[in-house]
Design brief:
The structure holds two protein chains of two kinds. Helices cover about 35% and strands about 25% of the residues of chain A. In chain A, the strands form two sheets. A six-stranded mixed β-sheet of chain A has the order 6-7-8-3-9-10, with helices on both faces. In chain A, strands 2-1-4-5 form a four-stranded antiparallel β-sheet, with helices on one face. In chain A, strand 7, helix 7 and strand 8 form a beta-alpha-beta unit. In chain B, a hairpin with a 2-residue loop joins strand 1 and strand 2. The radius of gyration of chain B is 19 Å and the shape is globular. Classes of the chains: A alpha/beta, B mainly alpha.
Chain lengths: ~240, ~290
Amino acid sequence: MSALLEVSDLTAGYGQVTVLHRLSLCAGEFGNVGLFGPNGHGKTTLLRAISGLLRPRSGTIRFDGAPITGLSPRAIVARGLIHVPQGNRLFPDLTIADCLALGAYSPHARPHEEANREKVLAIFPKLRERWRQRVRTLSGGERQMVSIGTALMSHPRLLILDEPTLGLAPKIKDELCAAVLAISKGGVPLIVVEQDVEFLLELSQHLYLVNHGEVATEIRPGQTMDHAEIMSMYFGH
Amino acid sequence: MGASAEILFGGLFQGSLYAMMAVGLALVWTTIGVFNFSHGVFMMLGAYLAWQFVDIGLPLPVVLPLAVVAMAGIGWLLQASVVRPLIGRSNIVLVVVITTLAAASLIENGVLELWGPRSKQIPPLLDGNTTIGGVGVSMHQIAIIVITPVILVALWLFLNRTRLGLALRAVAQNEDASLLVGLNVTALYGLAFAIAAALAALAGIFLGGYRFMSPVMGADPLLKALIVVVFGGISSISGPIFAAYLIGFFEAASNYYFGLYWTPALLFAVLILTLMVRPEGMFVRSSRSLA
Protein backbone atom coordinates (compact mmCIF):
# COMPACT_ATOMS: atom_id res chain seq x y z
CA MET A 1 0.00 0.00 0.00
CA SER A 2 1.40 3.35 -0.98
CA ALA A 3 1.42 6.31 1.34
CA LEU A 4 -1.42 8.84 1.30
CA LEU A 5 1.03 11.72 1.58
CA GLU A 6 4.60 11.61 0.33
CA VAL A 7 6.98 14.49 0.84
CA SER A 8 10.33 14.16 -0.88
CA ASP A 9 13.41 16.38 -0.80
CA LEU A 10 11.36 19.39 0.27
CA THR A 11 13.28 22.65 0.60
CA ALA A 12 11.37 25.72 1.76
CA GLY A 13 11.81 28.92 3.72
CA TYR A 14 11.00 32.59 4.02
CA GLY A 15 12.97 35.28 2.20
CA GLN A 16 16.69 34.65 2.64
CA VAL A 17 16.16 32.01 5.31
CA THR A 18 15.91 28.35 4.39
CA VAL A 19 13.99 26.41 7.04
CA LEU A 20 13.52 22.97 5.48
CA HIS A 21 16.52 21.20 3.97
CA ARG A 22 15.55 18.37 1.58
CA LEU A 23 13.06 16.94 4.05
CA SER A 24 11.33 13.67 3.17
CA LEU A 25 8.57 11.76 4.93
CA CYS A 26 5.58 9.54 4.27
CA ALA A 27 2.22 9.55 6.01
CA GLY A 28 -0.75 7.26 5.93
CA GLU A 29 1.11 3.97 5.54
CA PHE A 30 0.70 2.93 9.16
CA GLY A 31 -2.20 5.05 10.35
CA ASN A 32 -1.61 8.34 12.09
CA VAL A 33 1.67 10.20 11.98
CA GLY A 34 3.11 12.19 14.84
CA LEU A 35 5.66 14.97 14.34
CA PHE A 36 7.69 16.24 17.23
CA GLY A 37 10.85 18.17 17.82
CA PRO A 38 12.10 21.45 19.22
CA ASN A 39 10.35 24.70 18.34
CA GLY A 40 11.69 26.67 15.40
CA HIS A 41 12.98 23.64 13.53
CA GLY A 42 10.50 23.59 10.67
CA LYS A 43 7.42 21.62 11.72
CA THR A 44 4.99 24.48 11.07
CA THR A 45 6.85 25.46 7.89
CA LEU A 46 6.48 21.89 6.65
CA LEU A 47 2.73 21.98 7.27
CA ARG A 48 2.38 25.37 5.56
CA ALA A 49 4.17 23.98 2.50
CA ILE A 50 1.94 20.90 2.45
CA SER A 51 -1.27 22.93 2.58
CA GLY A 52 -0.12 25.39 -0.09
CA LEU A 53 0.25 28.47 2.12
CA LEU A 54 3.99 28.48 1.40
CA ARG A 55 5.44 27.69 -2.02
CA PRO A 56 8.37 25.32 -1.62
CA ARG A 57 11.68 26.12 -3.35
CA SER A 58 12.19 22.55 -4.52
CA GLY A 59 11.08 19.01 -3.87
CA THR A 60 7.73 17.35 -4.41
CA ILE A 61 4.61 16.69 -2.36
CA ARG A 62 2.24 13.96 -3.52
CA PHE A 63 -1.22 13.40 -2.08
CA ASP A 64 -2.97 10.17 -2.97
CA GLY A 65 -0.45 9.61 -5.75
CA ALA A 66 -0.92 12.97 -7.50
CA PRO A 67 1.57 15.82 -7.19
CA ILE A 68 0.20 18.85 -5.29
CA THR A 69 3.42 20.86 -5.07
CA GLY A 70 2.74 24.55 -5.75
CA LEU A 71 -1.04 24.15 -6.02
CA SER A 72 -3.24 26.81 -4.40
CA PRO A 73 -4.56 26.09 -0.90
CA ARG A 74 -8.04 26.00 -2.44
CA ALA A 75 -7.10 23.20 -4.82
CA ILE A 76 -5.47 21.29 -1.98
CA VAL A 77 -8.50 21.70 0.29
CA ALA A 78 -10.67 20.43 -2.58
CA ARG A 79 -8.67 17.18 -2.56
CA GLY A 80 -9.51 16.66 1.09
CA LEU A 81 -6.14 17.55 2.61
CA ILE A 82 -7.11 19.83 5.49
CA HIS A 83 -4.74 21.77 7.75
CA VAL A 84 -5.69 23.21 11.14
CA PRO A 85 -3.04 25.85 11.87
CA GLN A 86 -1.47 26.50 15.22
CA GLY A 87 -2.91 28.88 17.78
CA ASN A 88 -6.62 28.91 16.80
CA ARG A 89 -6.46 32.34 15.19
CA LEU A 90 -9.80 31.77 13.56
CA PHE A 91 -12.48 34.26 12.51
CA PRO A 92 -13.01 36.29 15.71
CA ASP A 93 -16.28 37.93 14.68
CA LEU A 94 -17.99 34.94 13.12
CA THR A 95 -20.29 32.68 15.13
CA ILE A 96 -19.65 28.97 15.57
CA ALA A 97 -22.49 28.32 13.11
CA ASP A 98 -20.79 30.60 10.55
CA CYS A 99 -17.39 28.95 10.99
CA LEU A 100 -18.78 25.47 10.46
CA ALA A 101 -20.71 26.65 7.39
CA LEU A 102 -17.45 28.07 6.01
CA GLY A 103 -15.75 24.74 6.60
CA ALA A 104 -18.19 23.23 4.12
CA TYR A 105 -17.53 25.96 1.53
CA SER A 106 -15.47 23.79 -0.80
CA PRO A 107 -17.71 22.10 -3.42
CA HIS A 108 -16.48 18.61 -2.49
CA ALA A 109 -17.63 19.13 1.12
CA ARG A 110 -21.06 20.64 0.47
CA PRO A 111 -23.02 17.43 -0.16
CA HIS A 112 -21.81 16.15 3.24
CA GLU A 113 -22.53 19.36 5.16
CA GLU A 114 -25.46 18.03 7.22
CA ALA A 115 -23.82 14.72 8.10
CA ASN A 116 -20.51 16.36 8.97
CA ARG A 117 -22.21 18.92 11.20
CA GLU A 118 -23.84 16.12 13.17
CA LYS A 119 -20.45 14.40 13.50
CA VAL A 120 -18.79 17.59 14.74
CA LEU A 121 -21.52 18.22 17.28
CA ALA A 122 -21.31 14.62 18.47
CA ILE A 123 -17.56 15.02 19.08
CA PHE A 124 -17.83 18.53 20.52
CA PRO A 125 -21.27 18.83 22.17
CA LYS A 126 -20.16 22.10 23.79
CA LEU A 127 -20.33 23.81 20.41
CA ARG A 128 -24.08 23.24 20.23
CA GLU A 129 -24.56 25.19 23.48
CA ARG A 130 -22.65 28.16 22.08
CA TRP A 131 -23.94 27.85 18.53
CA ARG A 132 -24.67 31.57 17.96
CA GLN A 133 -21.74 32.91 19.96
CA ARG A 134 -18.88 34.79 18.33
CA VAL A 135 -15.52 33.05 18.34
CA ARG A 136 -13.85 35.96 20.15
CA THR A 137 -16.05 35.31 23.19
CA LEU A 138 -14.98 31.65 23.52
CA SER A 139 -12.27 30.16 25.70
CA GLY A 140 -9.03 28.88 24.18
CA GLY A 141 -10.19 25.27 24.33
CA GLU A 142 -13.52 26.08 22.73
CA ARG A 143 -11.79 27.97 19.94
CA GLN A 144 -9.62 24.97 19.28
CA MET A 145 -12.79 22.85 19.10
CA VAL A 146 -14.21 25.27 16.52
CA SER A 147 -10.96 25.11 14.51
CA ILE A 148 -10.98 21.32 14.43
CA GLY A 149 -14.75 21.25 13.86
CA THR A 150 -14.39 23.63 10.90
CA ALA A 151 -11.73 21.35 9.44
CA LEU A 152 -13.99 18.30 9.86
CA MET A 153 -16.70 20.17 7.94
CA SER A 154 -14.27 20.26 4.98
CA HIS A 155 -14.71 16.48 4.69
CA PRO A 156 -11.03 15.63 5.24
CA ARG A 157 -9.34 12.57 3.79
CA LEU A 158 -6.26 13.52 5.76
CA LEU A 159 -6.34 15.96 8.65
CA ILE A 160 -3.28 17.91 9.81
CA LEU A 161 -3.35 19.30 13.34
CA ASP A 162 -0.62 21.73 14.41
CA GLU A 163 -0.23 21.61 18.20
CA PRO A 164 -3.94 21.27 18.99
CA THR A 165 -3.41 21.40 22.76
CA LEU A 166 -0.96 24.30 22.87
CA GLY A 167 -1.51 26.53 25.89
CA LEU A 168 -4.60 24.74 27.21
CA ALA A 169 -5.41 23.92 30.82
CA PRO A 170 -4.84 20.22 31.70
CA LYS A 171 -8.53 19.32 32.01
CA ILE A 172 -9.47 20.86 28.66
CA LYS A 173 -6.38 19.37 27.13
CA ASP A 174 -7.49 15.86 28.15
CA GLU A 175 -10.91 16.55 26.71
CA LEU A 176 -9.36 17.65 23.43
CA CYS A 177 -6.99 14.68 23.27
CA ALA A 178 -9.97 12.37 23.70
CA ALA A 179 -11.77 14.18 20.87
CA VAL A 180 -8.75 13.84 18.58
CA LEU A 181 -8.60 10.12 19.33
CA ALA A 182 -12.32 9.87 18.56
CA ILE A 183 -11.78 11.60 15.19
CA SER A 184 -9.03 9.14 14.39
CA LYS A 185 -11.25 6.18 15.36
CA GLY A 186 -13.93 7.68 13.11
CA GLY A 187 -11.71 6.87 10.16
CA VAL A 188 -9.89 10.12 9.39
CA PRO A 189 -6.11 9.65 9.24
CA LEU A 190 -4.18 12.35 11.07
CA ILE A 191 -0.85 14.10 11.03
CA VAL A 192 -0.37 15.66 14.43
CA VAL A 193 2.36 18.00 15.61
CA GLU A 194 2.55 17.90 19.38
CA GLN A 195 4.99 18.64 22.16
CA ASP A 196 3.24 16.19 24.46
CA VAL A 197 4.98 12.94 23.55
CA GLU A 198 2.71 10.83 25.79
CA PHE A 199 -0.27 11.96 23.73
CA LEU A 200 1.56 11.32 20.46
CA LEU A 201 2.46 7.78 21.53
CA GLU A 202 -1.16 7.12 22.40
CA LEU A 203 -2.29 8.43 19.02
CA SER A 204 0.30 7.05 16.68
CA GLN A 205 2.98 4.44 16.23
CA HIS A 206 4.65 6.27 13.39
CA LEU A 207 6.66 9.25 14.56
CA TYR A 208 9.12 11.64 13.03
CA LEU A 209 11.54 13.81 14.95
CA VAL A 210 12.05 17.02 12.97
CA ASN A 211 15.25 18.82 13.83
CA HIS A 212 17.18 21.54 11.95
CA GLY A 213 14.70 21.37 9.08
CA GLU A 214 15.15 17.70 8.36
CA VAL A 215 13.95 14.35 9.66
CA ALA A 216 16.39 13.40 12.40
CA THR A 217 14.75 10.08 13.29
CA GLU A 218 11.83 8.04 12.07
CA ILE A 219 10.14 5.67 14.47
CA ARG A 220 8.11 2.99 12.70
CA PRO A 221 5.48 0.75 14.23
CA GLY A 222 7.06 -2.15 16.04
CA GLN A 223 10.07 -0.11 17.04
CA THR A 224 9.25 0.37 20.65
CA MET A 225 10.35 3.63 22.05
CA ASP A 226 9.92 4.77 25.59
CA HIS A 227 9.61 8.21 26.96
CA ALA A 228 13.20 8.44 28.19
CA GLU A 229 14.64 7.57 24.80
CA ILE A 230 12.49 10.19 23.09
CA MET A 231 13.54 12.78 25.62
CA SER A 232 17.18 12.03 24.98
CA MET A 233 16.55 12.44 21.23
CA TYR A 234 14.94 15.77 21.93
CA PHE A 235 17.83 17.14 23.85
CA GLY A 236 20.66 15.51 21.92
CA HIS A 237 23.06 12.80 22.98
CA MET B 1 -40.87 74.43 11.05
CA GLY B 2 -39.11 75.35 7.84
CA ALA B 3 -35.70 75.05 9.48
CA SER B 4 -36.17 71.58 10.91
CA ALA B 5 -37.78 70.28 7.73
CA GLU B 6 -34.96 71.67 5.64
CA ILE B 7 -32.27 70.21 7.88
CA LEU B 8 -34.03 66.87 8.11
CA PHE B 9 -34.50 66.67 4.38
CA GLY B 10 -31.04 67.93 3.47
CA GLY B 11 -29.48 65.57 6.00
CA LEU B 12 -31.33 62.54 4.66
CA PHE B 13 -30.37 63.39 1.09
CA GLN B 14 -26.68 64.07 1.72
CA GLY B 15 -26.51 61.19 4.19
CA SER B 16 -27.83 58.80 1.53
CA LEU B 17 -25.13 59.77 -0.95
CA TYR B 18 -22.39 59.62 1.68
CA ALA B 19 -23.59 56.25 2.91
CA MET B 20 -23.42 54.76 -0.59
CA MET B 21 -19.88 56.06 -0.99
CA ALA B 22 -18.60 55.29 2.49
CA VAL B 23 -19.88 51.70 2.52
CA GLY B 24 -17.81 50.93 -0.57
CA LEU B 25 -14.68 52.39 1.00
CA ALA B 26 -15.29 50.38 4.16
CA LEU B 27 -15.96 47.18 2.21
CA VAL B 28 -12.60 47.44 0.45
CA TRP B 29 -10.79 48.38 3.64
CA THR B 30 -12.19 45.53 5.72
CA THR B 31 -11.64 42.83 3.12
CA ILE B 32 -8.32 43.84 1.57
CA GLY B 33 -6.94 46.27 4.14
CA VAL B 34 -6.23 49.03 1.63
CA PHE B 35 -7.69 52.46 1.08
CA ASN B 36 -9.05 53.02 -2.40
CA PHE B 37 -8.42 56.56 -3.61
CA SER B 38 -10.02 55.87 -6.98
CA HIS B 39 -13.40 55.50 -5.27
CA GLY B 40 -14.43 59.06 -6.23
CA VAL B 41 -13.51 58.32 -9.83
CA PHE B 42 -15.73 55.22 -9.77
CA MET B 43 -18.59 57.54 -8.89
CA MET B 44 -17.75 59.95 -11.70
CA LEU B 45 -17.20 57.24 -14.30
CA GLY B 46 -20.50 55.59 -13.38
CA ALA B 47 -22.31 58.88 -13.97
CA TYR B 48 -20.56 59.44 -17.32
CA LEU B 49 -21.32 55.90 -18.48
CA ALA B 50 -24.96 56.46 -17.58
CA TRP B 51 -24.92 59.75 -19.46
CA GLN B 52 -23.46 58.03 -22.51
CA PHE B 53 -26.09 55.30 -22.43
CA VAL B 54 -28.85 57.89 -22.13
CA ASP B 55 -27.27 59.84 -24.97
CA ILE B 56 -27.50 56.89 -27.36
CA GLY B 57 -31.19 56.68 -26.56
CA LEU B 58 -31.51 53.97 -23.93
CA PRO B 59 -34.30 54.44 -21.36
CA LEU B 60 -33.28 55.10 -17.74
CA PRO B 61 -34.53 51.75 -16.34
CA VAL B 62 -32.09 50.04 -18.72
CA VAL B 63 -29.29 52.55 -18.23
CA LEU B 64 -29.22 52.19 -14.44
CA PRO B 65 -28.42 48.47 -14.19
CA LEU B 66 -26.20 48.62 -17.28
CA ALA B 67 -24.00 51.39 -15.88
CA VAL B 68 -23.85 49.77 -12.46
CA VAL B 69 -22.84 46.38 -13.82
CA ALA B 70 -20.29 47.96 -16.16
CA MET B 71 -18.76 49.80 -13.21
CA ALA B 72 -18.64 46.59 -11.19
CA GLY B 73 -16.57 45.12 -14.02
CA ILE B 74 -14.32 48.18 -14.14
CA GLY B 75 -13.87 47.99 -10.36
CA TRP B 76 -12.83 44.35 -10.70
CA LEU B 77 -10.34 45.24 -13.47
CA LEU B 78 -8.86 48.08 -11.47
CA GLN B 79 -8.37 45.75 -8.50
CA ALA B 80 -6.71 43.17 -10.73
CA SER B 81 -4.36 45.74 -12.26
CA VAL B 82 -3.29 48.08 -9.46
CA VAL B 83 -4.08 46.23 -6.21
CA ARG B 84 -3.78 42.47 -6.63
CA PRO B 85 -0.16 42.45 -7.87
CA LEU B 86 0.86 44.22 -4.66
CA ILE B 87 -0.86 41.88 -2.21
CA GLY B 88 1.64 40.31 0.13
CA ARG B 89 4.02 43.28 0.17
CA SER B 90 4.62 44.68 3.61
CA ASN B 91 4.15 48.29 2.45
CA ILE B 92 0.92 47.53 0.55
CA VAL B 93 -1.17 50.19 2.33
CA LEU B 94 1.09 53.01 1.21
CA VAL B 95 1.76 51.66 -2.28
CA VAL B 96 -1.95 51.19 -2.97
CA VAL B 97 -2.60 54.81 -1.97
CA ILE B 98 -0.21 55.78 -4.75
CA THR B 99 -1.43 53.30 -7.37
CA THR B 100 -5.11 54.12 -6.81
CA LEU B 101 -4.36 57.86 -6.87
CA ALA B 102 -2.50 57.33 -10.14
CA ALA B 103 -5.36 55.30 -11.59
CA ALA B 104 -7.81 58.01 -10.48
CA SER B 105 -5.76 60.68 -12.22
CA LEU B 106 -5.53 58.63 -15.42
CA ILE B 107 -9.25 57.91 -15.49
CA GLU B 108 -10.15 61.51 -14.68
CA ASN B 109 -8.06 62.82 -17.56
CA GLY B 110 -9.24 60.02 -19.83
CA VAL B 111 -12.84 61.08 -19.19
CA LEU B 112 -11.90 64.69 -19.86
CA GLU B 113 -10.35 63.66 -23.19
CA LEU B 114 -13.25 61.43 -24.14
CA TRP B 115 -16.29 63.44 -23.09
CA GLY B 116 -14.89 66.97 -22.86
CA PRO B 117 -15.06 69.54 -20.11
CA ARG B 118 -18.66 70.66 -20.76
CA SER B 119 -20.98 70.00 -17.86
CA LYS B 120 -23.54 67.27 -18.38
CA GLN B 121 -26.65 66.07 -16.65
CA ILE B 122 -28.52 62.78 -16.45
CA PRO B 123 -32.32 62.82 -16.39
CA PRO B 124 -33.71 62.52 -12.85
CA LEU B 125 -35.03 59.18 -11.58
CA LEU B 126 -38.46 60.76 -11.15
CA ASP B 127 -39.73 64.02 -12.62
CA GLY B 128 -41.50 66.77 -10.75
CA ASN B 129 -41.37 68.58 -7.44
CA THR B 130 -43.37 68.60 -4.29
CA THR B 131 -43.57 70.50 -1.02
CA ILE B 132 -43.07 68.79 2.31
CA GLY B 133 -43.33 70.77 5.55
CA GLY B 134 -42.94 74.03 3.68
CA VAL B 135 -39.78 72.94 1.87
CA GLY B 136 -39.73 72.42 -1.88
CA VAL B 137 -38.06 69.16 -2.89
CA SER B 138 -37.69 67.26 -6.12
CA MET B 139 -39.12 63.79 -6.58
CA HIS B 140 -35.60 62.74 -7.63
CA GLN B 141 -34.27 63.52 -4.16
CA ILE B 142 -37.15 61.70 -2.50
CA ALA B 143 -36.46 58.68 -4.69
CA ILE B 144 -32.82 58.67 -3.54
CA ILE B 145 -33.79 58.97 0.11
CA VAL B 146 -36.09 55.96 -0.26
CA ILE B 147 -33.90 53.79 -2.50
CA THR B 148 -30.64 54.13 -0.55
CA PRO B 149 -31.78 52.39 2.66
CA VAL B 150 -33.24 49.59 0.53
CA ILE B 151 -29.88 49.06 -1.16
CA LEU B 152 -27.98 49.23 2.13
CA VAL B 153 -30.32 46.68 3.71
CA ALA B 154 -29.88 44.46 0.66
CA LEU B 155 -26.10 44.71 1.07
CA TRP B 156 -26.41 43.86 4.76
CA LEU B 157 -28.57 40.83 3.95
CA PHE B 158 -26.09 39.74 1.30
CA LEU B 159 -23.21 39.92 3.77
CA ASN B 160 -25.07 38.27 6.64
CA ARG B 161 -27.46 35.81 5.04
CA THR B 162 -25.65 34.32 2.04
CA ARG B 163 -22.75 31.92 1.71
CA LEU B 164 -20.81 34.33 -0.49
CA GLY B 165 -21.38 37.16 1.98
CA LEU B 166 -20.11 34.90 4.75
CA ALA B 167 -16.98 34.24 2.68
CA LEU B 168 -16.41 37.99 2.25
CA ARG B 169 -16.73 38.53 6.00
CA ALA B 170 -14.32 35.68 6.66
CA VAL B 171 -11.65 37.06 4.32
CA ALA B 172 -11.96 40.37 6.12
CA GLN B 173 -11.01 38.70 9.39
CA ASN B 174 -8.31 36.18 8.65
CA GLU B 175 -6.72 35.60 5.28
CA ASP B 176 -4.72 32.45 6.11
CA ALA B 177 -7.68 30.75 7.76
CA SER B 178 -9.80 31.69 4.72
CA LEU B 179 -7.28 30.03 2.41
CA LEU B 180 -7.33 26.91 4.58
CA VAL B 181 -11.09 26.45 4.27
CA GLY B 182 -10.69 26.72 0.51
CA LEU B 183 -11.95 30.24 -0.18
CA ASN B 184 -10.85 31.87 -3.43
CA VAL B 185 -9.33 34.88 -1.72
CA THR B 186 -8.28 36.77 -4.87
CA ALA B 187 -11.76 36.43 -6.36
CA LEU B 188 -13.30 37.70 -3.12
CA TYR B 189 -10.97 40.71 -3.21
CA GLY B 190 -12.18 41.36 -6.75
CA LEU B 191 -15.78 41.01 -5.61
CA ALA B 192 -15.29 43.55 -2.81
CA PHE B 193 -13.93 46.06 -5.32
CA ALA B 194 -16.72 45.31 -7.79
CA ILE B 195 -19.45 45.87 -5.20
CA ALA B 196 -17.78 49.08 -4.02
CA ALA B 197 -17.51 50.38 -7.59
CA ALA B 198 -21.15 49.50 -8.32
CA LEU B 199 -22.37 51.39 -5.23
CA ALA B 200 -20.18 54.38 -6.13
CA ALA B 201 -21.58 54.35 -9.68
CA LEU B 202 -25.11 54.39 -8.29
CA ALA B 203 -24.21 57.36 -6.09
CA GLY B 204 -22.75 59.07 -9.17
CA ILE B 205 -25.90 58.50 -11.20
CA PHE B 206 -28.00 59.85 -8.33
CA LEU B 207 -25.81 62.94 -8.10
CA GLY B 208 -25.69 63.40 -11.88
CA GLY B 209 -29.48 63.62 -11.98
CA TYR B 210 -29.38 66.48 -9.49
CA ARG B 211 -26.23 68.50 -10.16
CA PHE B 212 -24.08 69.09 -13.20
CA MET B 213 -21.43 66.47 -13.85
CA SER B 214 -17.76 67.11 -14.45
CA PRO B 215 -14.67 64.87 -14.50
CA VAL B 216 -13.78 66.01 -10.98
CA MET B 217 -17.28 65.53 -9.52
CA GLY B 218 -16.07 62.54 -7.46
CA ALA B 219 -13.41 64.42 -5.53
CA ASP B 220 -15.70 66.17 -3.08
CA PRO B 221 -17.87 63.09 -2.30
CA LEU B 222 -14.69 61.05 -1.79
CA LEU B 223 -13.44 63.63 0.70
CA LYS B 224 -16.78 63.57 2.52
CA ALA B 225 -16.84 59.79 2.52
CA LEU B 226 -13.36 59.87 3.99
CA ILE B 227 -14.61 62.10 6.82
CA VAL B 228 -17.55 59.74 7.29
CA VAL B 229 -15.42 56.60 7.59
CA VAL B 230 -12.96 58.28 9.94
CA PHE B 231 -15.84 59.49 12.05
CA GLY B 232 -17.82 56.25 12.01
CA GLY B 233 -14.90 53.84 11.95
CA ILE B 234 -13.86 52.10 8.76
CA SER B 235 -13.71 48.60 10.12
CA SER B 236 -17.36 47.69 9.72
CA ILE B 237 -20.27 48.34 7.39
CA SER B 238 -22.83 49.59 9.88
CA GLY B 239 -20.50 52.19 11.46
CA PRO B 240 -20.04 54.21 8.26
CA ILE B 241 -23.77 54.00 7.48
CA PHE B 242 -24.76 55.58 10.80
CA ALA B 243 -21.95 58.07 10.45
CA ALA B 244 -22.97 59.01 6.90
CA TYR B 245 -26.42 60.07 8.02
CA LEU B 246 -25.08 61.87 11.09
CA ILE B 247 -22.58 63.78 8.99
CA GLY B 248 -25.35 64.48 6.48
CA PHE B 249 -27.50 66.02 9.22
CA PHE B 250 -24.54 67.90 10.64
CA GLU B 251 -23.76 69.35 7.22
CA ALA B 252 -27.37 70.32 6.59
CA ALA B 253 -27.62 72.02 9.98
CA SER B 254 -24.32 73.79 9.50
CA ASN B 255 -25.37 74.93 6.02
CA TYR B 256 -28.55 76.31 7.45
CA TYR B 257 -27.11 78.11 10.47
CA PHE B 258 -23.54 79.00 9.43
CA GLY B 259 -23.73 78.91 5.64
CA LEU B 260 -22.04 76.85 2.94
CA TYR B 261 -18.78 78.69 3.46
CA TRP B 262 -18.14 77.42 6.98
CA THR B 263 -19.39 73.87 6.59
CA PRO B 264 -16.16 72.27 5.28
CA ALA B 265 -14.15 73.83 8.09
CA LEU B 266 -16.63 72.60 10.69
CA LEU B 267 -16.61 69.11 9.15
CA PHE B 268 -12.85 68.97 9.44
CA ALA B 269 -13.11 70.18 13.03
CA VAL B 270 -15.36 67.16 13.68
CA LEU B 271 -12.83 64.92 11.93
CA ILE B 272 -9.91 66.21 13.98
CA LEU B 273 -11.89 65.95 17.20
CA THR B 274 -12.83 62.36 16.38
CA LEU B 275 -9.22 61.46 15.70
CA MET B 276 -8.25 62.96 19.06
CA VAL B 277 -10.99 61.36 21.13
CA ARG B 278 -11.64 58.02 19.44
CA PRO B 279 -9.20 57.38 16.62
CA GLU B 280 -10.78 54.00 15.83
CA GLY B 281 -14.12 55.70 15.06
CA MET B 282 -17.33 56.22 16.98
CA PHE B 283 -19.20 53.02 16.26
CA VAL B 284 -16.66 50.22 16.18
CA ARG B 285 -14.81 47.58 18.06
CA SER B 286 -11.10 47.71 17.49
CA SER B 287 -10.79 44.86 14.97
CA ARG B 288 -11.69 44.61 11.30
CA SER B 289 -14.98 42.99 10.48
CA LEU B 290 -17.86 43.34 8.09
CA ALA B 291 -21.52 43.63 9.12
